[in-house]
Amino acid sequence: MTNTKTMKQLACAAAIAAAFATSSATATGNESTAPAKQTATDGMQKSKEMMHDGKQAVTSTARDAKQATMETARDAKQATVETAKDAKQATMETARDAKQATVEAARDVKQGAQSMANKTEQAAGQAADKFADWSERKHLDRYTDEKDRLEEQLKTVSTRDGYRAAIEKAGYMITSINKNDRDELEYEIVKGDHSYEVQLDFDDGAPRASSIDVASNLWRAESTERAMEDKNYRPSGVMFDKDRGAAYSDRTHVKDWSQEKERLERMLTTGMTVKDFTGALQREGYMVTSINDREPDYLEFEIVKAKKSFEVHDRPRHRPGQEVVDVTTNMWQSEATEKALVRSERYRSALPALRFTPDQARLASALLDGVE
Fold first, then answer.
1. What percentage of the chain's residues is helix, strand, coil (to nearest 5)?
2. How far is 152 from 275, CA to CA, in rounded Å?
3. DSSP assigned state of 271
4. pTM, full prediction
5. Pairwise CA distance, residues 160 & 362, whole Å
6. What residues are paired with 198 via a beta bridge?
């Protein structure tokens, strides 16, 4: 674009010069025709020379511009190559740094996860130790051994009064007499943190029992509960109370208890989550009061409904082909379970003060028992 403009400027200059020379010749008239012609001829020659010089100048300029462009392109290409090489090196360094940072971050995460796992395992172990205080599994073997031992000792007794003496000699404290008639004698006894119900049957008033059963004591008298809570407590003058004794006898409740246990076992499905167990039991009126143990292949928790309490065991991987949920006695109860049972008993004790009609009282009692 610049070269073309230069040529145009040179051509214009030559034309102007020629025109000026011609105009000058015309203005002077015919004073001297030969000199005028010579002047015109010189002007034209001068114009040609100027155009020739302009063309050479343009050619030279174009050649210089082309050379400069080629050099600029070569420099740009070299700069691009060097920039690309620098960028590649920077990218490799960034990738290396990123890889190193990722490795270090992964190592930190792994170490953090291991630390958390260790803490979780430690906390679970501590929780298991705590829960074991009221888990059936912790106590049942020793509890059963003591039960069997006492039964063997009582088998040597030959008189009715001798059974009480033998029980006390074995280190047990009699806290309640639930039955005492010609054919039956039943004691609640306590030793340490264990309580049993001694059930004795007599044929036709015979002095020696025909049947001896040292059973679990699930429905305990107030004096039994107090003796288990307070090691210094000693009930005095324990006598048979006909009106209250039967209310604490396991034999009074065991049929209903067994039927409810079997119903719950049919209803619950092995392998359920705690949330699923809780939902299913809540629909039946039960409250989960304590989770005693939770492992990949074992789950144990306590439930309460009115005066009933059970311990639920799920062992989905222990007995292939025979996986069932076990609903068992709950003799060692968590604090939450005890409080739930106490609340239920308080509500029940308050019923007489509400002055219900007989029908209303029966309905309220049925509701507290969870009967629809």
1. 60, 15, 20
2. 44
3. T
4. 0.55
5. 39
6. 187, 214
Nearest residue to 315 via CA among 300, 332, 331? 300
Query: How far apart, in whole angstroms, are the C-alpha atoms of residue 148 and residue 136?
Result: 17
Phi/psi-derived region of residue 370, left when phi > 0, alpha when psi is between -120 and 50, beta in every other case: left
DSSP element (H, E) containing 327: strand 325-328
In sequence order, the β-bridge partners of residue 301 are: 291, 312
- Tokens (6 digits) for 125: 């172990």
Q: Which of 229, 253, 250 is nearest to 369 (CA)?
A: 253
d(CA 53, CA 59): 10
One digit per residue, pLDDT tens: the chain, 372 residues?
555 555 555 555 555 555 454 444 444 444 445 565 676 677 677 767 766 766 676 566 667 767 777 777 787 677 667 767 776 777 677 667 756 765 665 566 456 545 544 443 444 444 444 555 777 777 788 999 999 999 999 999 999 999 999 999 999 999 999 999 999 999 999 998 899 999 999 998 899 999 999 998 888 889 998 998 898 999 988 888 877 777 888 888 889 999 999 999 999 988 889 999 999 999 999 999 999 988 888 899 999 998 889 999 998 765 555 567 999 988 888 889 988 988 876 655 554 544 545 555 555 455 545 543
Give CA–CA dist 227/187, Å, rounded: 14
Q: Is 198 helix (H, G, I), strand (E, B) or coil?
A: strand
Tokens of 71: 């050099």
Q: How far apart are CA 224 and CA 233, in angstroms?
A: 10
- Please list, in sequence order, all residues whose beta carbon lies within 8 angstroms of the beta carbon of residue 305, skipping any fewer than 6 positions away: 284, 285, 286, 287, 370
Query: How does 295-327 read in b/e, with b if 16+ C-beta sit within 10 Å?
Result: eeeebbbbbbbbebbbbbbbbbeeeeeeeebbb
| 315 vs 31: CA distance, rounded Å | 140
State the Cα–Cα distance between residues 46 and 278, nearest whole angstrom. 116
**How far apart, in Å, do the first and last CA atoms of the chain sit?**
105
Q: Give the type of residue at 329.
A: T
Alpha helices in 174-249 (DSSP H): 222-229, 242-248
